[in-house]
Every structure is written in C-alpha cells, then in structure tokens.
Specification:
Strand order of the largest sheet: 2-1-8-7
Number of domains: 2
Number of helices: 1
Number of strands: 8
Radius of gyration: 25 Å
Helix content: 10-25%
Shape: elongated
Strand content: over 45%
Order of helices and strands: HEEEEEEEE
Largest sheet: 4 strands, antiparallel
Length: 163
C-alpha cells in the first residue's frame, strides 16, 4: 500500500513527465522544420563507360543529407570494388564538396589486388555537376578499358526534390 506522500509524488512526477513529453513533441517539430530548411539533396549518377564515351551501365542514387554528413555509394563487379563518400559542407550560399574514394581491383591473371585511394575537396555551387573518377580518368592508349564515372550534384532540399 502506497503512503499519501508517495501517491502525491507519483502524481506530480506523472504530470511533469506528461508536460515534458508535450514540450518534447513541440521541439521535435521545430527540429524537423529546421532540418528541412538546411537539408541537402545529393544526386549521384554512376556510369560505366567503354571506349571513353559509350555508357554500358548506369544507376542513379538520390539521398537527403545535411551539411557534414556523407552520402556513400559502393559498386562491385568484375573483380573490382569501388567505394565513394561525398560530404557536402555548406556555409551561407557556398558548398565545399569532399569526395573520398577507394578502389580494389583484382588482377585477372593472378590474385594480386591493387588498392587506390583518392581525396578531393572542391568548391561547388547548387546544381553544378561534378564528375568523380574512382579508377582515375581514362588514360591515352587504354580507350578500350571500362571506366567508372560518378556525376554528383548538390541541391537545396524542397518537398518536390525527390520527384
């Protein structure tokens, strides 16, 4: 059996929790609105090209993020793994895009694995296409080789951004 003092403390604690819960709900709505105002849409078009220009495969990825939070993509196939992270950093109307890439390529003749990494940081504007080559740019004399191109665009989030 609960003492009258314990009963009163339980009622007061319940009322306080109810008030905190309602206050918390208002804060979450404000936080969501703030995030929407600062949200960014990262659009990535991944293409595999042959002969330096003919697209043999492509895919699109659209993700919503915020400044400082990376969007990742990983492509695997044919003895190759390519992983890239794109992190937009915004201040006022400027964007700095940090692109990090890693590739692992297994030789067809042996089980030797070649590892490469890349790191680029560049200023971009909203909607400007940036092309990132995880395997490096097409080299002269290697026009028959397949290559990967990642086209990245950063846009401000709008409710219609995902259409």
């Amino acid at each position: 059996m609960m003492s009258p003092l314990m009963r009163k403390m339980t009622i007061v604690a319940s009322l306080l929790l109810l008030g905190v819960t309602n206050l918390h709900a208002i804060d979450i709505e404000d936080a969501i609105e703030l995030l929407q105002d600062r949200a960014l849409v990262v659009r990535i078009i991944a293409r595999v090209t042959e002969h330096g220009r003919e697209t043999v495969w492509n895919m699109e990825l659209t993700e919503i993020t915020i400044s400082g939070r990376a969007v990742q993509i990983q492509l695997e196939g044919g003895g190759m793994t390519a992983r890239a992270q794109f992190t937009p950093y915004t201040s006022d109307q400027s964007i700095t895009l940090v692109a990090q890439g890693q590739t692992w390529v297994t030789s067809e003749d042996s089980s030797e694995v070649t590892y490469r990494s890349a790191f680029e940081s560049l200023p971009v504007t909203f909607g400007e296409p940036v092309i990132f080559f995880p395997l490096g740019e097409q080299r002269p004399g290697h026009s028959d080789a397949l290559n990967i191109e990642l086209e990245v665009r950063i846009e401000a989030f709008q409710q219609t951004s995902l259409n």
